[in-house]
Amino acid sequence: MSKIIRIGTRDSELALWQANTVKKNLEALGHQTKLVPVKSTGDLVLNKPLYEMGITGIFTKTLDIAMLNGDIDIAVHSMKDVPTALPKGIVQAAVLKRANYLDILAFKDNEEFLGSRDAVIATGSLRRKAQWLNRYPTHTVVDIRGNVNSRMQKLMDNDWNGAIFAAAGLDRIGLEHEHTIGLTWMLPAPAQGAIMVVALENDEFVREACAELNHEPTAICTQLEREFLRLLEGGCSAPIGALAYINNEDEVTFKGVLLSVDGTKKLEGEFTAPLGKHENLGRDCANSILSRGGKNLMGEIQRDTDSIEIFSTKKLTQDQRFLFKNDLEVDSEDFIKTSPNRIPAKILKAKMQNVIITSQNAVEALLTNVSANDFQFENIYCVGRRTRRLIESRIGKVKHFEKNAKKLADYLVDHLEGIEVTYFCSNLRLDDLPTILADNGITVNEIEAYKTKHTPVEVPKNVKGILFFSPSTVESFLELNKADKKAYCIGESTAKKAREHFSEVYVAKIPSVESVIDLVNEGYNK
Questions:
Q1: What CA dihedral angle connects 392, 397, 401 and 405, to 10 degrees?
Q2: Catalytic site residue 331?
Q3: Which pathway does the database say it acts in (predicted)?
């Protein structure tokens, strides 16, 4: 037991209490440990509701990265904050015995407001907000953020009637409020009140050490609740509550609820089974709710929840999404689709002194027609570093490249060998390059290598910034959307098109997806 187990945790008082609990339990078993506090985005960004930040994983992502980087061995979380799908390589190592799972209402003077038409309640939880409005539809619910202590202070400093807290959080740090009511009618968040320990899947020593902390009844119940959440959620933040418990007769009861954001719609389910035959309770409840209108309700929630702030007109990979500031909620779709054209082999196998290729799509289109060995290109000119890299890895040496088509045209006017070029392009292309060349006596033989088709998507109204990666994506976007947002562009050609419609246009320093994301991170203001 010589290995020191490094325990990663958020640095709030509640998170440290939870981490220290795990630390004491491990040390009681004879293990050496060390706490490694890490600040998460959920702690740093206090001016937005959690659901607007993409609540799933907001408090765990920083620790996941630290673990995958080898900076910590385990991470300790409030289990309700942990996404239902853990990152590849990270596994659930233990669930500690569950504490009080109820939500409680802390209020100031008296509870007479509960019978009044008008009252103001504070919570940053979409689930609590929806359930409160379902029960008290005339009340107003306002957002409140921060750790437990700061939220309690905000309650005292504002004219609100009350604020909703997790009972376990108050209990664990010994924070008592003079006036509280247990909200027994409100279903908690799945796994509320439980502490989860995660570890690297390939770290057998650490996983075996943590397994001794596992509380099996809590693990059973929280697994059912998280399965219910996973089946309903579908990646969308939604008002979902769930609770499973085992009674004295070894019978497992499961309750679940899904509501609309405003609380006007509510779908519930309750299922019971003997312990040992309980495995499908969460799934059965989710399927029951989905079959009774839950699918439509989730669709409404996905459309109505104002959480997306940045939208990319090119589908982003998971790694690219991780590059955004953690507090930015991002969505993406392909606003254009491309398909290669059939080009006669005789044309592509002919000798060509000067060839222009302005996109990776053109490279791929050429290679679907003939083998790279068949090309007889003497001088290849292109636009973009990535296009150059693709050409040099698949076809041959690039003589010269520029950041955009206009700069390339200007260069060719002064440096081209000969007076003729072959330009492999799309059916949708800007006029800059061929026009400049033609005006300077250079013959441009255009060959349509691929077709570009607009596939526009209507973006949520709350989106403030759009990522564009070609002039065609700008055109496609405008078919269904207004130019009332910030435009973040991959290069000058794209920016030129954007400037025709958008008042705020920003251009990446390097023509790459990552550079556009950096542009957003550097200049985006809420």
A1: -80
A2: no
A3: Porphyrin-containing compound metabolism; protoporphyrin-IX biosynthesis; coproporphyrinogen-III from 5-aminolevulinate: step 2/4
